[in-house]
Backbone:
């Protein structure tokens, strides 16, 4: 996916991803806190503005970490040092 691609989510997708209610997302739209477009009568919210809004709003940030996509972050960490990347090899590969 090119870097300039704009990702847009529906109200329900946004609510599920951030672990909040659809009503909270709609309030953010009404208050002009997120950017959106209307496609065939449905809101399509700009993901970048949604993410920025979620990080600025403490309640939403906490809910995202507990009930939204953030709940999976701990499972992504490599706990066994044997399988984690070696910092020296990462630095060498980035220099090349």
Residues:
């Amino acid at each position: 996916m090119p870097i300039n691609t704009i990702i847009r989510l529906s109200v329900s997708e946004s609510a599920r991803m951030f672990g909040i209610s659809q009503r909270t997302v709609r309030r953010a739209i009404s208050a002009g806190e997120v950017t959106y477009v209307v496609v065939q009568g449905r809101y399509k919210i700009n993901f970048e503005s949604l993410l920025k809004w979620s990080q600025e709003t403490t309640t939403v940030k906490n809910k995202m970490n507990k009930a939204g996509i953030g709940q999976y972050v701990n499972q992504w960490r490599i706990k066994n040092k044997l399988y984690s990347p070696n910092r020296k090899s990462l630095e060498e590969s980035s220099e090349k």
In short: The first helix runs from residue 11 to 18. The chain has one domain: 8-95. The helical segments are 11-18, 22-30, 47-56, 58-66, 73-76, 87-95.
